[in-house]
Each structure stands twice: as structure tokens, then as C-alpha cells.
Design goal:
single chain; mainly alpha; 18 helices
């Protein structure tokens, strides 16, 4: 079925049976993604006064989540998302509540790290699960719009989530942000789990146990490209924070990052409304190229006003690149392995962000904000090179499913 273009594609998507409720439930469950680590930092720092300790606890949570996400995605493909969501949200509530209690009681750092690891291991990649559900719910021609909506919602969450957790932690109680994460994850997970219309079909295993998403060359290419894009994004974050500090206005760092998200949100909405004639694998190369070109001017910013404008430009290709990657993943991953496939992309991107943040921080400390900006360009260049070199692998599609069949079989 041909893709439906124009901004009217979004209302048409949300008029699909079950689409509006799925989108709303996804927003609730997704909020903790942008709140959990910051809430942990704020609480540990408020109680112990140690930013170093807070960083260790938050990092332990993020790393364990990145390692566990593909495992949980694979499990969801084998036994169904519903069982995984209902089980993990219960474990997550216990683990995060234990972490909050341990922090409040002044427990030693190793115990905090253990509770943080347990929380991370019980935190599914909610955006990955949602993308797999959209693939089961809507027709093939509407899928690009659904992924664009997901990217817009992601950017909105990353705009509002940090603000919400900061307000809760400072105006209500230092632990209020993490308590809200427990509530959001529990309610969102249960609501999505019970949304039967979008439940991906569990494919029967063949004698070999079913082909894994990560065994597909095209998925591997996407993972490396996502890691490169993640490196760029992590280094850009450091670039803007370092620039704000060098200008003597450290508070502007958060403003620059928000403007980057604004650029991504707006571009993602437009990208999803256009019926692109280029194949998705070529769109991936085009969007990652624009992403790299948008990072170059950051190294030459001279004033906060200039950096504010460049921040919007730097964000323009973020959501489009992720939309193109998501659409490719849906076409490349073996049937019945979408949750795992999207989780691998999420983990690869998170690893890239962590590496980009670390490398960018070291370079900014020794060479200034512009050194971090050039590191971002380098990471993005890797994504462009891999996307271009991997075109043959990205063109190898599995057979296209019947539109909406997975949803209608529920």
C-alpha cells in the first residue's frame, strides 16, 4: 500500500483502531527513560553530597539496562511482550523502591550499585517494544508515519522528562522523581501489555531456535551506524555544556540541549509527513550526512546566540535518521524478532552516546569545546561511511508481511 503523505498522515494514523490509546500508553511508560538516571543523580547527591558516587550509581543503572535490553527483547519475541512487560514492571518497582530506600538510609555504595544494576536489568527498552507494536498494528504504508510519531514523542519526553524530575526532586522531595518513575513504568507497562490489538505475534520456533536479529548483516550495519550516531550525539551534548561553561554561563548548556531537541522534533514531524521517493537505505545515508554537516559549525560558535541557532540546526537530522533506521530494521529483522532487533539498536545507540560523552568530555577538558565538536563529527562520519558501505546488506529485505495481519490475528 502506498505511503500516505502530508501532515494529515498523523491524524489518519491516530484514527486507526487502537492507535491513539497505544500512543498515549507509550508516552506514560516512556517518561522514566528521560527521568531515571537524572533522578538517581539528584537523590544520591542530595543525601550523600557525593557527585562521584551519584555518577557511579547512575552509570551502573544505564550500563546494566543497555546489556539487558536485547535479552529482554529476545525473550519478548519468544514468549510475548505481555509476559515480559508484566514481569519486569513488578521487578522494576521492587528494585527501584529498594534503591530509593537504600539511598535514603545511607547504605554503602556497593549496595546502591547492586540495587541500581537490578533496576537496569528490569528496565525494558520501552521505545523498542513500542516500535515492534506499531509494526504489528498498522499497515506497511503507514509505518513510516508511526515511527515518525515515535521519534517526535521521544524528543518531547526528553524535553519534559528532565524538567519534571528536577521539579519533583527540588520542590517536593529528593526521592519524588524516582517514585514517579516507579509509577510511570508500572502504569505504562501494564497498559501497553493489556493492549492486545498491538501485541506482536509470537512466531513458532524452527528447529534451530529461530533466527536472531543480530545474525542479519543488515542489522549489524545498522547497529554500527547507530553507535556512530550515538557517539556524535554524546559528543554534541558535551560540546554545548563545555561551550556554556567557557562563556561563563553554565546554565545555558541545558538551553542549548533543549534547542537541539526542538530541531529534532520539528524535523521528525516533517520527515514523517513526506512521502519520500528514495529507498530507506539511501535516506539513512542522506540523514546521517546532514547530521554530520550540522555538527561542523558547532566548532566555530563564538557567542551564545550563535550557538543557540546552531543547536537547532545540529538537531535537524536526529529524528529523521532514527526514523529511517527504524523503518529499515522493520524490513530487515527476521520475522518474530522485532523486539530484539529494536533493542539491539537502542543498546548500540546508548553505547555510542556513552563513548561520545566520555571522549568528548576528555577532549573538551584538554582542548576546549571545539575539540569535542570535532569528535562528534568523527563519530558521525563513521555512521555515514558504514551506512554507505553497507548499502548491499541494507537492501536485502525479508519478505514483506501482509499489512496489519499481526494485529488482526489477535
Amino acid at each position: 500500500m502506498p505511503a500516505k503523505s502530508g501532515f494529515g498522515a498523523y491524524p489518519r494514523l491516530l484514527r486507526e483502531p487502537g492507535a491513539l490509546t497505544l500512543g498515549l500508553y507509550g508516552v506514560v511508560g516512556r517518561f522514566p527513560i528521560a527521568m531515571r538516571s537524572l533522578g538517581c543523580l539528584l537523590l544520591v547527591a542530595a543525601i550523600s553530597g557525593s557527585l562521584a558516587g551519584a555518577g557511579v550509581v547512575a552509570a551502573a543503572m544505564l550500563i546494566s539496562q543497555g546489556l539487558a535490553s536485547p535479552v529482554l527483547g529476545r525473550l519478548a519475541d519468544r514468549v510475548g511482550q505481555r509476559k515480559v512487560l508484566l514481569t519486569t514492571c513488578a521487578v522494576h518497582a521492587v528494585a527501584l523502591s529498594t534503591l530509593v530506600t537504600a539511598i535514603m538510609l545511607g547504605a554503602p555504595l556497593p549496595l546502591l550499585v547492586l540495587a541500581a544494576v537490578a533496576t537496569g536489568c528490569a528496565s525494558v527498552s520501552f521505545t523498542s517494544f513500542m516500535r515492534a507494536r506499531w509494526a504489528a498494528l498498522v499497515e506497511q504504508g503507514t509505518l513510516r508515519t508511526a515511527y515518525a510519531l515515535e521519534s517526535v514523542l521521544d524528543e518531547t519526553i526528553f524535553l519534559l522528562g528532565p524538567l519534571l524530575v528536577t521539579v519533583l526532586a527540588t520542590a517536593v522531595h529528593p526521592a519524588a522523581g524516582l517514585v514517579a518513575c516507579v509509577a510511570f513504568t508500572t502504569v505504562g507497562s501494564i497498559a501497553v501489555a493489556l493492549h492486545t490489538r498491538s501485541e506482536p505475534v509470537v512466531e513458532p520456533l524452527d528447529e534451530g531456535g529461530g533466527q536472531r536479529a543480530i545474525s542479519v548483516t543488515g542489522v549489524q550495519v545498522l547497529m554500527v551506524a547507530y553507535a556512530g550516531m550515538g557517539f556524535l550525539l554524546g559528543a554534541i551534548d558535551v560540546t554545548m555544556v563545555a561551550f556554556a561553561r567557557e562563556q561563563g554561563t553554565p546554565g545555558m548548556g541545558g538551553v542549548f540541549l533543549s534547542l537541539t531537541a526542538v530541531g529534532s522534533l520539528a524535523a521528525g514531524a516533517v520527515f514523517g509527513a513526506v512521502d519520500w521517493k528514495l529507498p530507506q537505505e539511501k535516506l539513512l545515508v542522506a540523514t546521517t550526512t546532514v547530521l554530520v554537516l550540522g555538527a561542523v559549525p558547532l566548532a566555530f560558535a563564538g557567542t551564545s546566540l550563535v550557538m543557540a541557532g546552531l543547536a537547532v540546526v545540529a538537531g535537524i537530522a536526529i529524528a529523521p535518521g532514527l526514523i529511517a533506521g527504524s523503518t529499515l530494521l522493520e524490513a530487515l529483522a527476521p520475522k518474530g524478532s522485532l523486539s530484539e532487533g529494536f533493542s539491539w539498536l537502542s543498546s548500540a545507540g546508548a553505547l555510542g552516546i556513552a563513548l561520545g560523552t566520555g571522549a568528548g568530555g576528555w577532549l573538551a577538558e584538554s582542548g576546549g569545546f571545539d575539540a569535542a565538536a570535532w569528535a562528534a563529527v568523527g563519530g558521525g562520519a563513521v555512521a555515514v561511511a558504514l551506512s554507505a558501505a553497507g548499502q548491499p546488506a541494507l537492501r536485502r529485505r525479508r519478505p514483506v508481511r501482509e499489512p496489519g495481519m499481526a494485529a488482526r490475528e489477535q
